[in-house]
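Human:
I keep going back and forth on a fold encoding question. Comparing notes only helps if you start from a blank page. Show me how you would write down a chain together with its backbone fold. Write it directly below this note and I will take it from there.

Assistant:
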Amino acid sequence: MRGIVLSGGRGTRLYPATKAVSKQLIPLYDKPMVYYPLSTLMQMGIREILVVTTPEDEERYRQLLGDGGQWGIHISYCRQPRPEGIAQALVLGRDFIKDRSVALILGDNFIHGDGLFQSLGRAGGLTTGAINFAYRVSDPQRYGIVEFDAEGRPLRVVEKPTKPRSNWAVIGLYVYDQRASDFAAELKPSARGELEITDLNQRYLDLGELRIEKLGTGNAWLDTGTHDSWLEACHYVQTIFHRQGQMIGCPEEVAYRSNF
């Protein structure tokens, strides 16, 4: 399996901090924000990773991450000239993905908790279809939401519903089989001119090949897109470290434990 970290966009909700630096390079407590999703991919056993970023930020990512050799992985880079949707990363990364399955994660994605390693391990073994990770939220109107039938099977993926029928939000970690790039290239831009990841997920769902991996109450998923949510995530990492002596989002530790 290959991995993609999407670290594009303008980070407008964190302005003016993001006027001079990419949002995903801002420290989240004691390490750059991008370390957290990078570590998540490494926990899935992924060692070939593509970082998709803006042309003006690419050199900064290269200075920070290098080629990944210090962690026993290989990192390559790709430019996203304009932010035209999450699914665009799969089109830009077509030559990188080739005939492999792929895990796509947003560069500001923060997840942590008990049982997460097992969930990531199951997703890392995917060969057919797609897996979306979901987390129960109190404000589903802000997110892409998965609706379920009476048996708990996914019915629809709805982007920011005005009247949500579910509290399970898709959190920004998507795992697909080798058809993902082709499916993404066939998507039509939405009204806002983007290739919507929700449309790609719905494509797999229509084929009956989308699974939802629910993260239970022992896990934390924090949106780091606003100043308040970023600060909340910083405090979470600080608390875990001070109370338990446990690091979160540390590539060195993940590489060591994974025998990379």
